[in-house]
């Protein structure tokens, strides 16, 4: 199987899938089963995968036997968690299969090739709409991704997306460069899913004709069924992944009608932060728009994306939400869109989203 370190450097390759012997049939007595901890706390296989000063052998730049610097390199992803193999085995494959599953006659699949200035495999899969980048890493870890005829299970392999033949679950993935960016005004009572096994109305029903015509779309984040308002739909996996990640702090604006007359002192409380069951949350902005007959209208701005975060926050401070609408994601505004309607984002709006997440 093709291996690569977390910094994208290719690892040691085996010529025989069922043996650890070299070409002359001599067994490697020092081989340690992958996954077992060594005495110093490291995992066996790091040297074999070219992570800690090993001598990786691969078909990428530098040729066979090219040495990797001994110093540790920055991990390609924030955090230290490993992809969940179990989740990867059951994860839904969103890839739209290519019309022709066999490679073109002049292409010969000879195994995954490391390309020094290429694109990481998980990023290519995310851009193709197969899954989010983290979801793509789980698919790779579960052994469901094949590059040029070879199953790849290690993270960080760099490839040329223009020439590599990629398959997920045996079906070749179409590398569609046509990007779609849509704004939807999700109606109240509709599910933020592309399909619903209980037959409830969902976002997928609104874009059904587009999907049937061959467009691959997925929603960016969610709104609970009782919340209406702005929801983005796209097939740009990288942009969607960054918009949903709290580290990029893309603000989301909501209009809420809450029970009770909200005092001015609540503004400071919400800005300082409120402790919820799954951790603290602080708003980026909070404005009281009006108070009438025991009900208040407020505007809330925050970059958190946790489940029902606005409702839980206001419930915690004693002002339950009666109605909730999301009006903005970054600089993209809902405007005068009717519930259930779609519109294509303008070039300036897409550019602003890219700028907000550093793309």
CATH architecture group name of the domain at 179-244 and 334-354 = 2-Layer Sandwich
Could you please say which CATH topology of the domain at 179-244 and 334-354 applies here? Alpha-Beta Plaits
Q: Which band does the percent of strand residues land in? A: 15-25%
Order of helices and strands: HEHHEEEEEEHHEEHEHEEEEHEEEH
Mean of all residue-level pLDDT scores: 75
Q: What is the share of helical residues?
A: 10-25%
What is the C-level CATH assignment of the domain at 179-244 and 334-354? Alpha Beta
Separation of the first and last Cα atoms? 32 Å
Protein name: Pseudouridine synthase
Pfam families: PseudoU_synth_2 (PF00849), S4 (PF01479)
Domain RNA-binding S4: 119-183
Biased composition (Gly residues): 51-65
Structural features, described:
The chain is α+β, with helices and mostly antiparallel strands and 359 residues long. Among the domains are: 117-170, RNA-binding S4 domain (Structural Genomics Hypothetical 15.5 Kd Protein In mrcA-pckA Intergenic Region, Chain A, Roll); 179-244 and 334-354, 2-Layer Sandwich (Alpha-Beta Plaits); 250-328, Pseudouridine synthase. It is 18% helix and 21% strand. It has nine helices and 17 strands. The protein has helices spanning 85-90, 121-127, 133-141, 203-206, 208-212, 237-244, 266-272, 309-316, 347-356; strands at residues 119-120, 145-147, 150-151, 158-159, 166-168, 171-172, 181-186, 218-220, 228-234, 252-259, 274-276, 279-281, 285-292, 295-302, 321-329, 332-333, 342-344. The strands form four sheets. Strands 7, 8, 9, 10, 13, 14, 15, 16 and 17 form a nine-stranded mixed β-sheet that branches. The longest helix has 10 residues, at 347-356. The radius of gyration is 24 Å and the shape is elongated. Its EC number is 5.4.99.-. This is Pseudouridine synthase. Residues 51-65 have a biased composition (Gly residues).
């Amino acid at each position: 199987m093709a291996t690569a370190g977390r910094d994208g450097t290719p690892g040691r390759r085996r010529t025989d899938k069922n043996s650890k012997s070299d070409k002359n049939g001599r067994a490697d007595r020092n081989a340690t089963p992958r996954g077992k901890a060594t005495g110093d706390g490291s995992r066996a296989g790091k040297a074999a995968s070219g992570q800690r000063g090993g001598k990786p052998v691969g078909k990428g730049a530098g040729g066979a036997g090219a040495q990797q610097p001994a110093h540790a390199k920055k991990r390609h992803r924030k955090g230290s968690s490993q992809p969940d193999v179990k989740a990867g085995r059951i994860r839904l494959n969103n890839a739209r299969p290519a019309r022709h599953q066999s490679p073109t006659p002049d292409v010969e699949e000879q195994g995954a090739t490391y390309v020094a200035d290429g694109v990481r495999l998980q990023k290519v899969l995310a851009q193709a709409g197969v899954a989010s980048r983290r979801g793509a890493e789980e698919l790779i870890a579960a052994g469901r991704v094949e590059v040029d005829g070879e199953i790849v299970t290690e993270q960080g392999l760099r490839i040329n997306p223009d020439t590599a033949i990629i398959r997920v679950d045996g079906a070749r993935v179409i590398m569609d460069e046509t990007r779609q960016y849509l704004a939807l005004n999700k109606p109240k009572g509709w599910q933020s899913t592309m399909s619903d096994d209980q037959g409830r109305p969902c976002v997928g029903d609104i874009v059904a004709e587009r999907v049937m015509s061959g467009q691959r779309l997925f929603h960016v984040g969610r709104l609970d069924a009782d919340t209406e308002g702005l929801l983005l739909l796209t097939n740009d996996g990288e942009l969607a992944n960054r918009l949903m990640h709290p580290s990029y702090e893309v603000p989301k604006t909501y209009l809420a009608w809450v029970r009770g007359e909200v005092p001015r002192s609540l503004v400071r409380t919400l800005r300082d932060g409120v402790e919820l069951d799954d951790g603290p949350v602080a708003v980026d902005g909070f404005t009281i728009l009006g108070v009438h007959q025991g009900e208040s209208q407020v505007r809330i701005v925050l970059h958190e994306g946790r489940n029902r975060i606005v409702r839980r926050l206001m419930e915690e401070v004693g002002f339950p939400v009666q109605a909730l609408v999301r009006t903005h994601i970054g600089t993209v505004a809902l405007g005068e869109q009717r519930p259930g309607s779609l519109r294509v984002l303008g070039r300036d709006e897409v550019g602003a989203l890219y700028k907000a997440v550093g793309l």
